[in-house]
Design goal:
The protein is of the alpha/beta class and 718 residues long. It has 26 helices and 23 strands. It folds into 4 domains: 66 residues; 114 residues, OB fold (Dihydrolipoamide Acetyltransferase, E2P) (Beta Barrel), CATH 2.40.50; 176 residues, 3-Layer(aba) Sandwich (Rossmann fold); 163 residues, P-loop containing nucleotide triphosphate hydrolases (Rossmann fold, 3-Layer(aba) Sandwich). The relative contact order is 0.09. Bound molecules: adenosine-5'-diphosphate and magnesium ion (MG).
Length: 718
């Protein structure tokens, strides 16, 4: 049976089943065999026959008797019937359209039954089309008092369901395919020697272990194999991308040490050790003529801009090879216009003493520094003029948002691309930027999202990592308080005093709107909407308060942010959208409502919003949780030295799946499972590296090549 055979060619599927499968992403034999159980256990709780009520879904253990095959009385539908019996009573079983099921069991067989009971008024119990499997014993022997704890004997795969296909239907189809040895027709993409090195089962065995494990260990070892495979594939792709990139030349940038020292010497501060190390790594990278691919990860306020400016200086003070005139160019990309403006101003400060031109390109206008008439200032210019100067190389540094990567923007000698807040950009945009010119520019990506090392190695597998794990000296640390509901009013009066001094505050809530009152189960957490009313009418009526959240248009968002930045609003009530890098020096207070709903690393970043000035900053963590684990987490936030520590703590405590949506990172659940295991991620990465070094096109590994190609296509067509 060929792995790419569509299931509908093998099984007779009705419309609902076809739709259900397709919703689950299952089309072929390969797909269904790679559709893994979400857990093992009983689908429904185990009951005695006597205690089953009407329409209850249950698992029963009992013996079958009176098996009969025939047709229904009126409509002549093929049917099988039987009686199931345990120590407490009897029930009837009817299987329509599937009389063959009766052949699976014989008179007196002990079985496990799963299905929905129909109890009629006279008390008789019937199961229509239940799932029945022969077993060798009940969990604790027939007649034992409790069936609750299912022993390993009864490890039972439970699959994600969809309308039209139930877990048991999927299981049944998979078992059928395995009986027909379909799993043996699948070629193993992972070479034997790799499997051996890490003691992982072959594909064939792993498929059996994962779909019908005899013991927990079987299921675990199979999952380990597939998790390894996922990370291995991701790494192969990343290493391949990297190799392709490195095959192209880039500018070799070798600044004079003396010039560098005097550039850095003009900073109003001295670089931290972490900043120095980052700078050294970058300078060493760009001195080579193979393109740099480096990710600079550092907490908000750790001083990434200064590092980026040093790299930019090195670039613009270097001439193109074989030329002693003209500068190499830098493109600096940021996610929002506010940030673009802010970095433009910063760069003017860093570079004003040098004779170089800096451009700002954004959809709302373009600027150039210096202005001809006033060399201390920038001036507004037309987009056409700016593009002209970028193209002929006169403008050395171009700062902008997405508009930077439009086709109309051409550089003369683009040598370095800096992407700030890189997690806000998709990979595709990153590639776009890089493919534009013949000589590949060096790439410096920067992010403040602290993620665990395993996740970083996986999603940024094509980049080298530099951590800035240290804050500049002399920063006042934020005063943190975990506030219980009884201290709420008191806290807001303290905030009022700070606001009166002219400071500003952020208030962050876990959701935008109040929960639907009709939905009783709706989570009782504060929304932006409610908080806005509370602050305006009760807590802080004398201040100007505004809301900011994801349901606003980009323009509305930027305007609200701008008003806050200009000090026109005192308090900004928002969802976690403010996480991203705007620097409002006057904002010294942050309140996080419903704190137990946020990830630690995320709250850490939120806290970073007020860490920017030399004023004393405050962070109030509001939570009514009594859960010990949640309280521990909030205390960890108080103690941790940096974002990375917190990310690791979060990963250990909660697991990757819960913390980092696979959507956000484009990583499957299976790969997420691997992230708690640093050794495995490193092993997969090292293996992938070796493979790509030896055989970049993977021609010696046709199955690997094929599956990799398929994955890339899937990603692109999503
Ligand atoms: P981020 O890493 O979040 O991008 P920034 O580069 O915006 O941080 O830096 C935050 C602030 O810290 C800026 O005002 C910057 O001038 C200042 N800063 C950067 N490096 C140092 C340092 N080594 N010592 C003191 N202040 C610094
Ligand atoms: Mg920054």
């Amino acid at each position: 049976m060929a792995p790419d055979t569509p299931l509908e060619k093998i099984f007779r599927l009705n419309k609902d089943q076809k739709a259900g499968f397709s919703k689950l992403g299952i089309v072929t034999v390969f797909d269904i065999l790679h559709f893994f159980p979400s857990r093992y256990g009983d689908v429904y709780s185990i009951r005695y026959i006597k205690s089953v009520s009407d329409k209850e879904k249950v698992t029963l253990y009992g013996r079958v008797r009176d098996i009969k095959v025939g047709k229904t009385f009126r409509s002549k539908i093929p049917e099988a019937t039987a009686i199931i019996e345990d120590d407490t009573g009897k029930a009837k079983i009817r299987w329509f359209h599937q009389p063959y099921i009766a052949k699976k069991v014989s008179e007196g067989t002990l079985v496990k039954l799963e299905g929905e009971g129909k109890r009629s008024k006279n008390g008789s119990l019937v199961f229509i089309n239940p799932d029945v499997t022969a077993v060798s014993k009940t969990p604790h022997g027939v007649g034992d008092s409790l069936f609750e704890d299912s022993s390993d004997q009864f490890l039972h795969p439970v699959y994600p369901e969809s309308k039209g296909v139930t877990s048991r239907f999927i299981r049944y189809k998979i078992q059928q395919l395995i009986q027909q040895k379909a799993h043996e027709s699948l070629a193993d993409p992972i070479p034997q020697d790799v499997l051996k090195r890490y003691r992982l089962p072959s594909l064939g065995s792993a498929l059996i272990y994962i779909h019908s494990p005899r013991r927990k260990e079987d299921a675990l070892v199979a999952r380990k194999r597939f998790a390894f495979q996922e990370v291995f594939f991701i790494q192969l792709q990343k290493q391949k991308d990297r190799k392709t990139r490195e095959e192209r030349p880039s500018f070799s940038i070798k600044p004079k040490e003396k010039d560098m020292d005097s550039f850095i010497g003009r900073f109003p501060f001295s670089l931290t050790e972490a900043q120095k190390k980052a700078t050294d790594e970058i300078i060493s990278d760009i001195s080579k003529n193979i393109p740099m691919s480096r990710l600079l990860e550092g907490d908000v306020g750790s001083g990434k801009t200064a590092v980026a400016s040093v790299a930019s200086f090195a670039t613009v003070s270097t001439h193109p090879e074989g030329q002693d005139f003209g500068n190499l160019q830098v493109a600096y990309m940021v996610p929002t216009e506010i940030l673009a403006n802010q970095q433009f101003e910063n760069f003017i400060k860093y570079f004003s003493h040098l004779n170089i031109k800096i451009g700002l390109i954004s959809s709302s206008g373009c600027r150039k520094f210096p202005s001809k008439t006033n060399p201390k200032n920038s001036t507004k210019i037309s987009r056409r003029q700016l593009l002209e100067w970028v193209k002929n190389g006169e403008v050395s540094i171009l700062i902008g948002t997405h508009s930077l990567i439009q086709k109309t923007v051409k550089f003369k000698n683009l040598a370095l691309v800096i992407i700030d807040e890189q997690h806000r950009f998709g990979t595709i945009q990153r590639q776009d930027l890089l493919r534009k010119d013949e000589i590949t520019p060096h790439l410096l990506s920067m992010t403040a999202t602290p993620i665990p090392r395993t996740l970083a190695l996986t999603v940024y597998g094509d980049l080298d990592l530099t951590l800035i794990d240290q804050m500049p000296e002399g920063r006042k640390s934020v005063i943190m308080e975990i506030v219980s509901p009884s201290k709420r009013e008191e806290t807001f009066s303290k905030i009022k005093e700070e606001l009166k001094k002219g400071n500003q505050a952020y208030v962050v809530c876990p959701r935008i709107y109040a929960p639907d009152p009709d939905q009783e189960k709706a989570l009782n957490v504060v929304s932006v909407e409610e908080e806005l009313q509370y602050l305006k009418n009760k807590a802080l009526p004398e201040f100007s308060i505004e809301a900011l959240h994801g349901k606003l248009t980009p323009k509305e968002k930027e305007d609200a942010m701008k008003r806050f930045q200009d000090g026109k609003t005192d308090v900004l009530v928002s969802t976690s959208v403010i996480e991203v890098g705007v620097n409002v020096e006057n904002a010294t207070i942050i309140v996080i409502e419903g704190a137990e709903r946020f990830g630690l690393a995320q709250m850490h970043q939120l806290r970073g919003r007020v860490l920017r000035s030399t004023h004393q900053a405050y962070c109030y963590i509001l939570s009514d949780t009594e859960n010990e684990k949640s309280i521990k987490r909030l205390q960890a936030l108080k103690k941790a030295k940096n974002g990375f520590e917190l990310a690791e703590f979060d990963l250990a405590q909660r697991g990757a799946g819960e913390l980092y949506g696979k959507r956000q990172w484009g990583v499957s659940d299976m790969a997420m499972e691997a992230l708690k295991n640093l050794k495995m991620v490193e092993a997969a990465r090292n293996e992938a590296r070796k493979f790509i070094e030896k055989d970049g096109s993977l021609n010696n590994y046709p199955e690997l090549k094929k599956q990799l190609k398929k994955r890339v296509q899937n990603v692109h067509f999503e």
